[in-house]
Amino acid sequence: MKTLQTIDIKDKIVVIRCDLNVPHKDGQITDETRIKASIPTLKYLLDNGAKEIHILTHLGRPKGQVVPELSAKILQKPLADLLGEPVSFNETYESNGEKVQLHENVRFDPTEKKNGNEMIAKLMQLKPDLFVLDAFGTAHRQQASVVGLADKVPSVAGLLMESEITAMSPYLSQEKVPGLTIIVGGAKMDTKIGILEHFAKTAENIIVGGALANTFLHAQGFDVGQSLYQEEKTEKAMEIMAIADASGCGFHIPVDVMCADDITDQTALDVPTEDVMGDMKIFDIGPHSVASFKEIIMHSSTIIWNGPMGVNEFKPFENGTKGLLEGLAATKAKVIVGGGDSIAAITQFGYDFAEFTHVSTGGGAMLELLEGKELPGVKAVS
Ligand code: ADP
Ligand code: MG
Asked: How many Å apart are CA 215 and CA 273, to the nearest integer?
């Protein structure tokens, strides 16, 4: 990967793709993490004498149409405040001559997501001397603002992009990584199979929680009642457990779970996993599971965590994720966290990002990188 420090910035017109896709409600940004994470590279460009800096980002899913509520304009003020520099908002893809220009949501253009020539041509109107990719969160997307300029102008990775890759590259090895524990939860089995397959070979321990665990419980022959699980992934789950077994990787599923009839129930019942039946629904891991998972964390040297242990948005089902985080914050081991909902849980339960070795700005991108896929964005700047 080509990096920013290797290139002369002075007097250059720079187009930079950031991932400023922040959560927002009624025009108010609710979490500035992604903006803050993008500041060091923007500052670096300013400090090194860039002539113009053109900031690109997407925001939400406008599906190729102009959706006023998803205008990138809401980013203008926080960017200017955090940069300590005026930021002008530009809707035309033609330079207005200002030093720092923020452009409209790239996904308003119907050809952005297809890496279409129309969008690439629009971006080329800015006459860039240099393209910087700093949007790790979208580096797994083959889209115009991510990869489209790479064969037209010199292209490098930004500081955020570089730090993400540096943090995760030690774990891409095909060899056993001593002391490595992978914790995967959440709901989206499809996006998590890849890393489970990869780490079943190279990790010492895999812990599964969340709705993901239900599919593995089902594959092991447990009754999961009416819990959310994926029948069609049963065989895949068995395959992953067989790989783990063959490679000497401990595969850990919850020994007890928190059940309720409905997600809106005010209380949950702690049930040994083998006693789940009938209409019961699993919404979290139980306290015995939390204790045993914490024990594994304490004996690991590196932990990679992606995906909550339960439906942590609801109080009766938050203790699994909360307990896990307590273990992750307490350990001296390296801890890498990724995934939108997992990162939200850090703040939700009062922890600070600084308590962890690396908090990734990418969910899907992190998963794809760790499963060993070549990310289109990485390729573009290599
Ligand atoms: P991340 O964003 O960290 O990658 P995911 O998006 O994969 O995580 O999963 C988070 C979602 O999984 C949360 O909305 C949570 O409510 C849901 N979830 C976790 N455990 C369960 C469960 N047992 N049943 C249903 N949904 C669950
Ligand atoms: Mg999520």
From this structure: 13
What integer pLDDT is reported at residue 189 of this predicted model?
A: 85
Residue of 34, 141, 192, 281 with catalytic role: 34
User: Between β-strands 281-285 and 302-306, what pairing exists: parallel, antiparallel or unpaired?
Assistant: unpaired
Which atom from ligand 1 is nearest to the alpha carbon of 191?
A: 7
Cβ–ligand 1 contact at 23 (below 6 Å): no
Which phi and psi (to 5°) does residue 297 adopt?
A: -55, -45
Which pLDDT value is given to residue 52? 98
| pLDDT number for residue 188 | 81
Q: How far apart are CA 296 and CA 309, in angstroms?
A: 15
Cα–Cα distance measured from residue 71 to residue 91, given in angstroms and rounded to the nearest whole number:
10
| 10-residue averages of pLDDT along the chain (382 residues) | 95 98 93 95 98 98 97 98 98 97 98 97 98 97 97 97 96 94 93 95 98 97 96 96 98 98 95 97 98 98 98 97 98 96 94 96 94 95 96
Q: Which residues, including other chains, have CB under 8 Å from residue 299's CB and lie 6 or more apart?
A: none
**Quick one: how many helices (H) and strands (E) in the chain?**
13, 17
**Residue 209 Cβ < 6 Å to ligand 1:** no
Residue 121: enclosing H or E segment and its boundaries? helix 117-124
Of 80, 146, 82, 135, the C-alpha closest to 113 is 146
Ligand nearest to the CA of 348: 1
Distance set, CA 31 to CA 68, 78, 164, 213, 308 (Å): 20, 11, 20, 29, 19
